[in-house]
Amino acid sequence: MIHTRITGTGSYLPGEPVGNQALIARHGLESSDEWIVDRTGIRSRHLAPMEITSSDLALEASRRALAAAGRSPADIDLVIVATSTPDYIFPSTATLLQSKLGIVNGAPAFDVQAVCSGFVYALTIAEKFIRSGSHRCALVVGAEVFSRIMDWTDRGTCVLFGDGAGAVVLEASEQPGLLASALHADGRHHGLLVVPGQVSSGQAIGDPFLRMDGQAVFKFAVRVLAEVGAEVLEKAGMTADQVDWLIPHQANIRILQATAKKLGIPMEKCIATVERHGNTSAASVPLALDEAVRSGCVQHGQHVLLEGVGGGFTWGAVLLKY
Ligand code: UT7
What we know:
Blueprint: E1 3-12, E2 18-19, H1 20-27, H2 33-40, E3 44-45, H3 54-69, E4 78-82, H4 93-101, E5 109-112, H5 118-131, E6 137-145, H6 155-158, E7 163-173, E8 178-185, E9 193-194, E10 197-200, E11 203-206, E12 211-212, H7 214-235, E13 245-248, H8 253-263, H9 274-277, H10 284-294, E14 303-310, E15 314-321
Parallel strand pairs: 4-5, 4-6, 13-14
Antiparallel strand pairs: 1-7, 2-3, 6-7, 8-15, 9-12, 10-11, 14-15
Helix pairs in contact: 3-4, 7-8
The structure holds oxa(dethia)-CoA.
C-alpha cells in the first residue's frame, strides 16, 4: 500500500510586519488597536509590495520546502497551488511557479480555488494522486496576496487579512503520514464571503473587493471546523486526546479558541499565528505548519490536525503523523 508523508515545509512572508496602528493611520480607518486585538487577536500582518505576486511568494516558500525535504525542483512530478489571488486569470499560478522553479519535466501543474480551505483541498488532492501510484513527489502550496482584494475603506474586513505563502513537499512513503482527510462544500452559502466581480470586455464588472458577513462566517466556521475535525479523527480511529497539535485556518483567535474547545483540545496544543500573520487565506495553514515545524513544536511522529474553512462555503481537514 502506498502511503504519503510530508517530507519538508517552507513559508515566506513579504516585507516587515504592519501593525494595527500603522494600518489604521495609513488608510484613515475609524478603528483602534484595542478593537482589532480584542475582536480578532490580530496585532500585525505582512503586505506584499504591488510588484510582488502570489507566484513570487510561492516561489520563496517552495524553495524552503524543497531544501527542507532535500529535494530539487527536478524531483517534483506534481505542482498544486491553492490561491484565490492568482497572478492572472490564466494561466494558473501553479504553471508560473513551475516555470520560476525551472521544473521542465512535464509535471502537471494546476491551481485549486477553495479560498481559505484551499491548502487542505490541495493537500488532499495531492495525496490521492500519490496513493493512486501515478505520482511520487508533489509540491503543494498555499499562496495569497489578499491585500489586492481589500476595500481599504471597509474596516470590517481590511484589518483582518494579510499576504504570504506556505508550501510542503508530499512524497510516496512506506510509512503512514497522512492518516485521514475529509473535504466538504455547501454552495448555498456562496454569498457570505465573496469577491463578486469579474473581468469582462476589458474592465472589472461588478465589485472587485472582498465582502463578508462576518458574524455568519464566524458561526459557520466554528461549527464546521469542529465537525470536520471529529470526522477525520473518527475515520482514523483516533480520539482528540491523541492529537499533539491542532492547526486550524488562522482567521480569528476567537474562532481558534471556540474550535479547540468544541473538539476538546486544549489551546496549548493549538498553533496560533493569526496574531502576527492576520488571515492569509489558503496560505494560513501551511504557514502555521512551517512555523510550528521550524520552531520545534511539531516533532516527527506527532499527530497533527490541519483544518480549513472558507468561501464557497468550503471546509476540510487532514489528520497526519508528521
Ligand atoms: O477565512 C474566513 C474569513 N473570515 C472570518 O473567519 C471572519 C469571521 N468573522 C469575524 O472574525 C468577526 O465577525 C469580525 C472580526 C469580522 C467582526 O467581529 P464581531 O465581533 O462579529 O463584530 P461585528 O461585526 O458584530 O461588529 C461590531 C461593531 C460594529 O459596530 P456597531 O454596528 O455595533 O456600531 C462594527 O461596525 O464593531 C464595528 N467594527 C469595527 N470597529 C472598529 C467592525 N470592524 C471594526 C473595526 N474597528 N475594524
